[in-house]
Amino acid sequence: MKRWFALFAATLALTGCGYNDFQRLDEQTRSAWSEVLNQYQRRADLVPNLVATVKGEAAFEQDTLTRVVEARAKATAMQVTPETLNDPQAFQRFQQAQGELSSALSRLLVVSERYPDLKANQGFRDLRVQLEGTENRITVARNRYIQAVQDYNVLARSFPSNLTAMVFSYQPKPNFSVQNEAQISAPPPVDFSAPKK
Predict the structure, then answer these.
(1) What values do phi and psi take at 99, rounded to 5?
(2) Helix intervals (H) in 113-174
(3) I want to staple 17 with a disulfide (CB 3.0 to 4.6 A). Which of 135, 162, 164, 169 is the partner?
(4) Does residue 190 sit within a domain?
(5) What is the pLDDT along the chain (197 residues), one digit of tens a residue?
(6) How many domains, the chain?
(7) What's the pTM value of the predicted model, to 2 decimals?
(8) What CATH number did the domain enclosing 171 receive?
């Protein structure tokens, strides 16, 4: 038995077991994940100022503000740890909470277009620019994370490094996905018939 184990270990060493590659790619994944979290936190930090500025518009839709505040509270209440990267269900919950905040903020910005005094408010305009810049940074950070996870997952599934993955329990990591994949994969209905008069 010991002889077979020694032979197996020697074979792995000779064929490039990928152990060091797993360590490097795992660190890259964690680093990219940290940047995603930093950008989400930056966005969450902008929300209270944005809400306070919008509240100054007396007639602004209270329901829209409430949704933003609730979505921010839900997103920031989640305890995110490095282990979240190895737990697909926790990762999905995190992604869903951030998606709800994105949706609520988008609604807020769309609704704000109906309020000329708010659009003219310099503080609101500055916050809107910061928010848009942060959304762009989130996109960049997510793309880097997606690439890092892809590199890691390819290593975990490729031969012979998949043997090392099995021996050391390196599982593929979850990645960001499209929330409404079924909706966007369905072709939009098109009707070329002339409208009836």
Answers:
(1) -65, -40
(2) 116-120, 122-157, 161-168
(3) 164
(4) no
(5) 676 666 566 555 545 678 889 999 999 999 999 999 999 999 999 999 888 888 877 567 788 888 899 999 999 888 887 778 888 888 889 999 999 999 999 988 888 888 888 878 888 889 889 999 999 999 999 999 999 999 999 999 988 888 888 888 888 998 887 654 444 344 444 443 444 44
(6) 1
(7) 0.75
(8) 1.20.1440.20
